[in-house]
Write a structure and sequence with these properties.
Layout lengths: L3 E5 L6 E6 L6 H6 L5 E7 L3 H13 L6 E7 L8 H13 L7 E6 L1 H13 L5 E6 L2 H7 L4 E6 L2 E8 L4 E5 L8 H18 L1 H15 L3 H21 L14 H11 L6 H18 L5 H13 L12 H8 L11 E5 L5 E5 L3 H9 L2
Parallel strand pairs: 2-9, 3-4, 3-5, 5-6, 6-9
Antiparallel strand pairs: 1-2, 7-8, 10-11
Protein backbone atom coordinates (compact mmCIF):
# COMPACT_ATOMS: atom_id res chain seq x y z
CA UNK A 1 0.00 0.00 0.00
CA UNK A 2 1.19 3.51 -0.78
CA UNK A 3 2.43 5.47 2.18
CA UNK A 4 4.51 8.55 2.89
CA UNK A 5 7.64 7.34 4.67
CA UNK A 6 9.86 9.18 7.13
CA UNK A 7 12.72 7.72 9.18
CA UNK A 8 13.70 8.72 12.70
CA UNK A 9 17.49 8.39 12.46
CA UNK A 10 18.82 6.89 15.69
CA UNK A 11 21.51 4.53 14.45
CA UNK A 12 20.66 0.90 15.20
CA UNK A 13 17.40 2.06 16.81
CA UNK A 14 16.19 4.00 13.76
CA UNK A 15 12.57 3.37 12.85
CA UNK A 16 10.10 4.21 10.08
CA UNK A 17 7.00 6.39 10.21
CA UNK A 18 4.42 5.38 7.59
CA UNK A 19 1.52 7.74 6.84
CA UNK A 20 -1.29 6.82 4.48
CA UNK A 21 -4.74 5.40 3.90
CA UNK A 22 -5.57 1.76 4.59
CA UNK A 23 -2.44 0.96 6.60
CA UNK A 24 -4.45 -0.85 9.30
CA UNK A 25 -5.01 -3.58 6.68
CA UNK A 26 -1.33 -3.84 5.73
CA UNK A 27 -0.48 -7.04 7.62
CA UNK A 28 3.02 -7.47 6.14
CA UNK A 29 4.02 -3.94 7.15
CA UNK A 30 2.69 -4.50 10.67
CA UNK A 31 4.42 -7.87 11.04
CA UNK A 32 7.77 -6.46 9.90
CA UNK A 33 7.68 -4.17 12.93
CA UNK A 34 7.19 -7.00 15.45
CA UNK A 35 10.01 -8.48 17.50
CA UNK A 36 8.64 -12.00 18.02
CA UNK A 37 5.50 -14.10 17.95
CA UNK A 38 3.80 -12.75 21.10
CA UNK A 39 1.74 -9.60 20.43
CA UNK A 40 -0.41 -7.63 22.85
CA UNK A 41 -2.66 -5.01 21.28
CA UNK A 42 -3.48 -2.27 23.80
CA UNK A 43 -6.41 -0.01 22.96
CA UNK A 44 -9.32 1.72 24.68
CA UNK A 45 -13.05 1.12 24.89
CA UNK A 46 -13.78 3.72 22.21
CA UNK A 47 -11.22 2.74 19.58
CA UNK A 48 -11.25 -1.03 20.11
CA UNK A 49 -14.84 -1.60 18.89
CA UNK A 50 -13.99 0.22 15.65
CA UNK A 51 -10.48 -0.98 14.78
CA UNK A 52 -9.31 -3.86 16.98
CA UNK A 53 -10.80 -6.71 14.94
CA UNK A 54 -9.51 -5.14 11.74
CA UNK A 55 -5.97 -4.98 13.14
CA UNK A 56 -6.13 -8.55 14.48
CA UNK A 57 -7.36 -9.79 11.10
CA UNK A 58 -4.52 -8.05 9.26
CA UNK A 59 -1.97 -9.60 11.60
CA UNK A 60 -3.51 -13.06 11.44
CA UNK A 61 -3.74 -12.95 7.64
CA UNK A 62 -0.06 -12.14 7.26
CA UNK A 63 0.88 -15.82 7.41
CA UNK A 64 3.00 -15.45 10.54
CA UNK A 65 2.44 -17.77 13.50
CA UNK A 66 1.51 -15.15 16.07
CA UNK A 67 0.01 -15.40 19.54
CA UNK A 68 -2.17 -12.30 19.75
CA UNK A 69 -3.75 -10.91 22.90
CA UNK A 70 -5.64 -7.68 23.41
CA UNK A 71 -6.63 -5.30 26.18
CA UNK A 72 -9.10 -2.40 26.01
CA UNK A 73 -8.63 0.19 28.75
CA UNK A 74 -11.02 2.97 29.73
CA UNK A 75 -10.76 6.02 27.49
CA UNK A 76 -9.34 9.36 28.58
CA UNK A 77 -6.44 11.13 30.29
CA UNK A 78 -7.92 10.33 33.71
CA UNK A 79 -6.96 6.68 33.08
CA UNK A 80 -3.30 7.28 32.16
CA UNK A 81 -2.27 5.89 35.53
CA UNK A 82 -0.05 3.33 37.20
CA UNK A 83 -3.20 1.24 37.73
CA UNK A 84 -3.79 1.07 33.98
CA UNK A 85 -0.14 0.18 33.42
CA UNK A 86 -0.56 -2.66 35.95
CA UNK A 87 -3.45 -4.00 33.85
CA UNK A 88 -1.13 -4.10 30.84
CA UNK A 89 1.49 -5.98 32.87
CA UNK A 90 -1.16 -8.50 33.93
CA UNK A 91 -2.23 -9.00 30.31
CA UNK A 92 1.39 -9.56 29.29
CA UNK A 93 1.78 -12.15 32.03
CA UNK A 94 -1.40 -13.92 30.92
CA UNK A 95 -0.05 -13.95 27.37
CA UNK A 96 3.19 -15.48 28.71
CA UNK A 97 5.04 -12.70 26.96
CA UNK A 98 8.80 -12.84 27.13
CA UNK A 99 11.53 -10.42 26.05
CA UNK A 100 10.80 -10.79 22.34
CA UNK A 101 7.13 -9.81 22.74
CA UNK A 102 5.71 -6.66 21.16
CA UNK A 103 3.04 -4.29 22.43
CA UNK A 104 0.99 -2.59 19.71
CA UNK A 105 -0.54 0.71 20.82
CA UNK A 106 -3.83 1.22 18.97
CA UNK A 107 -5.33 4.57 19.92
CA UNK A 108 -4.48 8.15 20.75
CA UNK A 109 -1.82 9.75 22.88
CA UNK A 110 -2.99 8.26 26.18
CA UNK A 111 -2.82 4.70 24.86
CA UNK A 112 0.51 5.36 23.16
CA UNK A 113 2.02 6.75 26.36
CA UNK A 114 0.65 3.90 28.49
CA UNK A 115 1.62 1.11 26.11
CA UNK A 116 5.08 2.57 25.61
CA UNK A 117 5.60 2.94 29.35
CA UNK A 118 4.56 -0.67 29.92
CA UNK A 119 6.89 -1.81 27.12
CA UNK A 120 9.76 0.11 28.71
CA UNK A 121 9.14 -1.65 32.04
CA UNK A 122 8.18 -5.23 31.13
CA UNK A 123 11.26 -7.44 31.60
CA UNK A 124 13.29 -4.18 31.52
CA UNK A 125 12.21 -3.31 28.02
CA UNK A 126 10.38 -4.94 25.12
CA UNK A 127 9.38 -3.75 21.67
CA UNK A 128 6.33 -1.68 20.90
CA UNK A 129 4.69 -0.29 17.79
CA UNK A 130 2.62 2.88 17.58
CA UNK A 131 -0.60 2.68 15.55
CA UNK A 132 -2.08 6.14 16.26
CA UNK A 133 -5.75 6.78 15.53
CA UNK A 134 -5.99 10.49 16.47
CA UNK A 135 -4.48 13.50 14.75
CA UNK A 136 -2.66 14.56 17.90
CA UNK A 137 -1.01 11.16 18.23
CA UNK A 138 -0.12 11.01 14.54
CA UNK A 139 1.66 14.36 14.49
CA UNK A 140 3.27 14.31 17.91
CA UNK A 141 2.96 11.79 20.73
CA UNK A 142 3.54 8.63 18.66
CA UNK A 143 6.94 9.87 17.49
CA UNK A 144 10.00 10.28 19.68
CA UNK A 145 9.78 7.65 22.41
CA UNK A 146 8.38 9.69 25.30
CA UNK A 147 6.30 7.36 27.46
CA UNK A 148 4.69 8.12 30.80
CA UNK A 149 1.80 7.95 33.23
CA UNK A 150 0.23 10.76 35.23
CA UNK A 151 0.05 11.22 38.99
CA UNK A 152 -2.48 13.34 40.90
CA UNK A 153 0.41 15.73 41.56
CA UNK A 154 1.23 16.25 37.90
CA UNK A 155 1.19 15.04 34.31
CA UNK A 156 3.78 12.62 32.90
CA UNK A 157 5.84 12.56 36.10
CA UNK A 158 6.60 8.82 35.86
CA UNK A 159 7.99 7.68 32.55
CA UNK A 160 10.87 6.68 30.32
CA UNK A 161 12.35 7.36 26.92
CA UNK A 162 11.58 4.19 24.94
CA UNK A 163 11.50 4.38 21.16
CA UNK A 164 8.97 2.38 19.13
CA UNK A 165 10.03 -0.01 16.38
CA UNK A 166 7.65 1.71 13.96
CA UNK A 167 4.87 4.25 13.70
CA UNK A 168 2.04 3.27 11.35
CA UNK A 169 -0.51 6.05 10.90
CA UNK A 170 -3.63 5.11 8.93
CA UNK A 171 -5.16 8.44 7.93
CA UNK A 172 -8.52 6.74 7.30
CA UNK A 173 -8.90 6.58 11.09
CA UNK A 174 -9.37 10.34 11.14
CA UNK A 175 -12.74 9.92 9.42
CA UNK A 176 -14.22 8.53 12.66
CA UNK A 177 -12.49 11.01 14.96
CA UNK A 178 -14.96 13.29 16.81
CA UNK A 179 -14.76 16.94 15.73
CA UNK A 180 -13.52 18.10 19.13
CA UNK A 181 -10.66 15.56 19.06
CA UNK A 182 -9.72 16.62 15.54
CA UNK A 183 -9.58 20.28 16.56
CA UNK A 184 -7.47 19.40 19.59
CA UNK A 185 -4.98 17.67 17.32
CA UNK A 186 -4.55 20.82 15.28
CA UNK A 187 -3.14 22.54 18.38
CA UNK A 188 -0.04 20.36 18.08
CA UNK A 189 0.12 20.97 14.31
CA UNK A 190 0.05 24.72 14.94
CA UNK A 191 2.71 24.26 17.63
CA UNK A 192 5.21 22.95 15.08
CA UNK A 193 4.69 26.02 12.93
CA UNK A 194 4.82 28.41 15.89
CA UNK A 195 8.06 27.03 17.30
CA UNK A 196 10.15 26.74 14.17
CA UNK A 197 8.51 27.22 10.76
CA UNK A 198 6.93 30.53 9.82
CA UNK A 199 6.27 29.32 6.26
CA UNK A 200 4.28 26.36 7.60
CA UNK A 201 2.33 28.77 9.81
CA UNK A 202 1.31 30.74 6.72
CA UNK A 203 0.40 27.47 4.95
CA UNK A 204 -1.90 26.55 7.83
CA UNK A 205 -3.56 29.95 7.63
CA UNK A 206 -4.17 29.36 3.92
CA UNK A 207 -5.38 25.77 4.28
CA UNK A 208 -7.40 25.84 7.51
CA UNK A 209 -10.71 25.19 5.77
CA UNK A 210 -9.42 22.14 3.88
CA UNK A 211 -7.86 20.72 7.03
CA UNK A 212 -11.04 21.15 9.05
CA UNK A 213 -12.99 19.53 6.20
CA UNK A 214 -10.66 16.50 6.54
CA UNK A 215 -9.36 16.75 2.98
CA UNK A 216 -7.19 13.63 2.75
CA UNK A 217 -4.31 15.11 0.77
CA UNK A 218 -4.08 18.25 2.86
CA UNK A 219 -4.19 16.29 6.11
CA UNK A 220 -1.49 13.89 4.93
CA UNK A 221 0.75 16.79 3.96
CA UNK A 222 0.32 18.43 7.38
CA UNK A 223 0.95 15.17 9.26
CA UNK A 224 4.04 14.37 7.22
CA UNK A 225 5.43 17.88 7.71
CA UNK A 226 5.05 17.66 11.50
CA UNK A 227 6.51 14.14 11.67
CA UNK A 228 9.51 15.13 9.55
CA UNK A 229 10.13 18.17 11.75
CA UNK A 230 9.91 16.10 14.93
CA UNK A 231 12.01 13.24 13.51
CA UNK A 232 14.83 15.66 12.80
CA UNK A 233 14.70 17.17 16.28
CA UNK A 234 14.57 13.75 17.99
CA UNK A 235 17.53 12.52 15.94
CA UNK A 236 19.57 15.50 17.11
CA UNK A 237 18.41 15.50 20.76
CA UNK A 238 16.74 12.23 21.71
CA UNK A 239 16.55 12.73 25.48
CA UNK A 240 15.67 16.44 25.53
CA UNK A 241 18.97 17.91 26.65
CA UNK A 242 18.51 20.99 24.48
CA UNK A 243 16.66 21.54 21.19
CA UNK A 244 13.94 18.94 21.82
CA UNK A 245 12.66 21.04 24.72
CA UNK A 246 11.36 23.50 22.12
CA UNK A 247 8.67 20.93 21.27
CA UNK A 248 7.16 21.81 24.66
CA UNK A 249 6.02 25.26 23.54
CA UNK A 250 2.87 25.89 25.58
CA UNK A 251 3.23 22.66 27.53
CA UNK A 252 4.43 23.98 30.89
CA UNK A 253 1.31 26.11 31.14
CA UNK A 254 -0.85 23.46 29.46
CA UNK A 255 0.19 20.52 31.62
CA UNK A 256 -0.35 22.55 34.79
CA UNK A 257 -3.78 23.55 33.51
CA UNK A 258 -4.70 19.92 32.78
CA UNK A 259 -3.72 18.90 36.31
CA UNK A 260 -5.45 21.87 37.92
CA UNK A 261 -8.76 21.42 36.09
CA UNK A 262 -8.82 17.63 36.49
CA UNK A 263 -7.55 15.30 33.80
CA UNK A 264 -10.08 15.23 30.99
CA UNK A 265 -11.92 18.50 31.60
CA UNK A 266 -9.73 19.98 28.88
CA UNK A 267 -8.37 17.83 26.08
CA UNK A 268 -4.58 17.91 25.85
CA UNK A 269 -4.63 19.94 22.65
CA UNK A 270 -7.05 22.45 24.14
CA UNK A 271 -4.78 22.98 27.13
CA UNK A 272 -1.76 23.35 24.84
CA UNK A 273 -3.59 25.95 22.74
CA UNK A 274 -4.17 28.05 25.86
CA UNK A 275 -0.58 27.39 26.96
CA UNK A 276 0.85 28.62 23.65
CA UNK A 277 -1.12 31.85 23.90
CA UNK A 278 0.11 32.36 27.47
CA UNK A 279 3.71 31.74 26.38
CA UNK A 280 3.31 34.19 23.49
CA UNK A 281 1.74 36.86 25.70
CA UNK A 282 4.45 36.44 28.32
CA UNK A 283 7.08 36.79 25.58
CA UNK A 284 5.48 40.06 24.47
CA UNK A 285 5.21 41.32 28.06
CA UNK A 286 8.91 40.62 28.59
CA UNK A 287 9.79 42.48 25.40
CA UNK A 288 11.01 39.35 23.66
CA UNK A 289 8.43 39.24 20.83
CA UNK A 290 5.99 41.47 18.96
CA UNK A 291 2.44 41.47 20.24
CA UNK A 292 1.20 41.29 16.64
CA UNK A 293 2.49 37.72 16.41
CA UNK A 294 0.47 36.78 19.49
CA UNK A 295 -2.62 38.22 17.80
CA UNK A 296 -1.90 36.17 14.69
CA UNK A 297 -1.53 33.00 16.77
CA UNK A 298 -4.83 33.67 18.53
CA UNK A 299 -6.59 34.19 15.20
CA UNK A 300 -5.29 30.87 13.83
CA UNK A 301 -6.24 28.95 16.95
CA UNK A 302 -9.68 30.56 16.79
CA UNK A 303 -10.09 29.37 13.20
CA UNK A 304 -9.52 25.82 14.36
CA UNK A 305 -12.07 26.22 17.15
CA UNK A 306 -9.51 26.05 19.96
CA UNK A 307 -9.64 27.93 23.28
CA UNK A 308 -7.24 30.82 23.76
CA UNK A 309 -7.94 32.01 27.31
CA UNK A 310 -7.93 30.48 30.77
CA UNK A 311 -11.13 28.89 32.06
CA UNK A 312 -12.94 30.93 34.68
CA UNK A 313 -11.83 30.46 38.26
CA UNK A 314 -8.30 29.20 37.61
CA UNK A 315 -6.06 29.77 40.63
CA UNK A 316 -2.92 31.39 39.27
CA UNK A 317 -0.89 30.70 42.41
CA UNK A 318 -1.75 27.01 42.36
CA UNK A 319 -0.95 26.87 38.65
CA UNK A 320 2.53 28.25 39.28
CA UNK A 321 3.06 25.64 42.01
CA UNK A 322 2.23 22.93 39.46
CA UNK A 323 4.52 24.55 36.89
CA UNK A 324 7.40 24.19 39.33
CA UNK A 325 7.08 20.39 38.92
CA UNK A 326 7.75 20.69 35.19
CA UNK A 327 10.56 18.42 34.00
CA UNK A 328 12.30 21.24 32.13
CA UNK A 329 13.02 23.17 35.34
CA UNK A 330 16.57 23.10 36.70
CA UNK A 331 17.77 23.77 40.26
CA UNK A 332 14.34 25.03 41.30
CA UNK A 333 14.24 27.72 38.60
CA UNK A 334 11.37 27.96 36.13
CA UNK A 335 12.51 27.25 32.57
CA UNK A 336 9.91 28.03 29.92
CA UNK A 337 9.68 27.74 26.17
CA UNK A 338 8.91 31.24 24.92
CA UNK A 339 9.42 32.81 21.48
CA UNK A 340 10.82 35.75 19.57
CA UNK A 341 7.81 35.58 17.28
CA UNK A 342 6.25 33.05 14.91
CA UNK A 343 8.75 30.33 14.02
CA UNK A 344 11.35 31.35 16.61
CA UNK A 345 10.90 29.52 19.91
CA UNK A 346 13.60 29.59 22.56
CA UNK A 347 14.41 28.19 26.00
CA UNK A 348 14.28 30.88 28.68
CA UNK A 349 15.74 30.21 32.11
CA UNK A 350 14.83 31.78 35.46
CA UNK A 351 11.62 33.43 34.27
CA UNK A 352 10.30 36.10 36.64
CA UNK A 353 7.40 34.59 38.60
CA UNK A 354 5.88 38.01 39.20
CA UNK A 355 5.43 38.43 35.45
CA UNK A 356 3.78 35.01 35.26
CA UNK A 357 1.43 35.83 38.15
CA UNK A 358 0.40 39.06 36.46
CA UNK A 359 -0.17 37.26 33.18
CA UNK A 360 -2.37 34.59 34.78
CA UNK A 361 -4.38 37.22 36.63
CA UNK A 362 -5.27 38.98 33.37
CA UNK A 363 -5.75 36.01 31.01
Amino acid sequence: MNATSIVVELGERSYPIAIGAGLLDDGPRLVRALAGRHVLIVSNDVVAPIYLDRLRTALAASGSALTIGSLALADGEAHKTLESAARIFAALAELKANRDATIVALGGGVIGDLAGFAAACWMRGIAFVQVPTTLLAMVDSSVGGKTAVDLPQGKNLVGAFHQPRAVIADTDALSTLPARELRAGFAEVIKYAALGDAAFFAWLEANADALLARDAGTLTRAIAHCCAQKAGIVARDETEQGERALLNLGHTFGHALETLTGYGALLHGEAIAIGMVLAARLSATLGRAPGADTDRLVRLLDRFGLPTSLPAGVDGGRMIELMRLDKKNLSGQLRLILWRGIGRAEIVRDVDEAAIRSLLATS
